[in-house]
């Protein structure tokens, strides 16, 4: 734990990320830290289009944890921009730049500018699975029902 009581995540700022704030919470009660666009100017995403946006940082996520990259609700509500593979995962052994795949599900072009808050990252514990092959599995009340089996709403 850090002096602030949190789990330490070391951040290395890359050259194109210089001058941008480090990932941080928007409010004390926020569960995630905001990730910002480290683009040189602007990136325009057409309706239905997608873009891989750099954040200008590399991170050291502690072993046993992952950084889940999630959409920002305000961005999704206002312009239809969301994270394509939500949640994206930054594994504890990844040391490359954190980049975010944004998709425009809106009806008009969306512009991403340098420093825009484009996603949020939430630090989550990861359980270590012990995979055991089984010939059969015990039944459950749900069975193999999925993909809307309980109704549309």
Word description of this protein:
By secondary structure, the protein is mainly beta. The protein has one domain: Distorted Sandwich (Deoxyuridine 5'-Triphosphate Nucleotidohydrolase, Chain A), CATH 2.70.40.10. The chain has one helix at residues 73-79, and strands at residues 10-13, 33-36, 42-45, 50-60, 65-70, 81-83, 88-90, 97-104, 110-113, 117-125. The strands form three sheets. The protein has a four-stranded antiparallel beta sheet with strand order 1-4-8-6. The longest helix has 7 residues, at 73-79. The chain starts with 9 loop residues before the first strand and ends in a 28-residue tail after the last strand. The mean pLDDT is 93.
Provide a short characterization of the protein structure.
5% of the residues lie in helices and 37% in strands. It has one helix at 73-79, and strands at 10-13, 33-36, 42-45, 50-60, 65-70, 81-83, 88-90, 97-104, 110-113, 117-125. The protein is built from 1 helix and 10 strands, in the order βββββαβββββ.
Oligomer: single chain
Helix proportion: under 10%
CATH architecture: Distorted Sandwich
Structural class: mainly beta
Secondary structure blueprint with pairings:
Blueprint: E1 10-13, E2 33-36, E3 42-45, E4 50-60, E5 65-70, H1 73-79, E6 81-83, E7 88-90, E8 97-104, E9 110-113, E10 117-125
Antiparallel strand pairs: 1-4, 2-10, 3-9, 4-8, 5-7, 5-10, 6-8
Give descriptors for this structure.
153 residues, four-stranded antiparallel sheet, single chain, 10 strands, mainly beta, globular, 1 helix, Deoxyuridine 5'-Triphosphate Nucleotidohydrolase, Chain A
């Amino acid at each position: 734990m850090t002096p602030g009581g949190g789990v330490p995540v070391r951040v290395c700022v890359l050259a194109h990320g210089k001058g941008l704030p480090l990932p941080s919470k928007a409010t004390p009660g926020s569960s995630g830290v905001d990730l910002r666009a480290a683009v040189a100017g602007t990136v325009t995403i057409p309706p239905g289009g997608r873009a891989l946006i750099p954040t200008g940082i590399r991170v050291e996520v502690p072993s046993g944890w992952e950084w889940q990259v999630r959409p920002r609700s305000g961005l999704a509500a206002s312009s239809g921009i969301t994270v394509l593979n939500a949640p994206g995962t930054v594994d504890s052994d990844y040391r490359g730049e954190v980049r975010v795949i944004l998709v425009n599900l809106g009806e008009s072009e969306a512009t991403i500018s340098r420093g825009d808050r484009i996603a949020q990252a939430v630090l989550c514990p990861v359980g270590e699975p012990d995979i055991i092959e089984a010939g059969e599995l015990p039944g459950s009340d749900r069975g193999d029902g999925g993909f809307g089996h309980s109704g549309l709403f």
